[in-house]
Specification:
With 142 residues, this protein is an alpha+beta fold. Helix content is 46%, strand content 18%. A hairpin with a 2-residue loop joins β4 and β5.
Length: 142
């Protein structure tokens, strides 16, 4: 790094912004790779009944979409999810699987958070589905 072009750029802010953008792209790609592995590992926990289906979050984009649809902060859990500090699941109506219904955080095979739009609580039917999924799939109790 003896080159003054790199040591003393003409426009420091512009060069800084380029590096920040490169870092974000690299970090997003790295997170997405880890999230994809987590999705594959957690896919054994996919569960459905006549009304609902629950799946692990497959990508960072799915977390961003969930945040947008639900007006919540689940996108900020991307790193924790990628590193296995928590599991993030997306609950949907079977008839409209692209529309967000309930965002679910799991730790140690236990639901620790579940919320609908604006971080409100799920309704009774949704709660019963989550309880059944937690007992039958996450805890393996028949």
């Amino acid at each position: 790094m003896n080159c003054s072009k790199y040591l003393f750029p003409n426009n420091l802010k512009e060069e800084h912004d380029k590096l920040v953008k490169q870092y974000k792209l690299y970090n997003t790609a790295k997170l997405n790779k880890s999230i994809s592995k987590r999705y594959t590992s957690l896919s054994k926990n996919i569960f459905k009944d006549k009304s609902f289906i629950i799946i692990p979050a497959p990508t960072i984009e799915s977390l961003e979409d969930e945040s947008k649809q639900q007006h919540n902060c689940v996108r900020t859990y991307a790193e924790d999810y990628a590193l296995g500090r928590c599991d993030i699941y997306l609950m949907r109506n079977r008839i409209s699987p692209d529309k967000s219904l309930v965002t679910v955080e799991v730790k140690n095979n236990k639901v620790v958070q579940s919320s609908i739009k604006y971080n409100l609580n799920p309704n009774e039917k949704q709660k019963k589905f989550l309880e059944k999924w937690e007992q039958k799939i996450l805890k393996g109790v028949a």
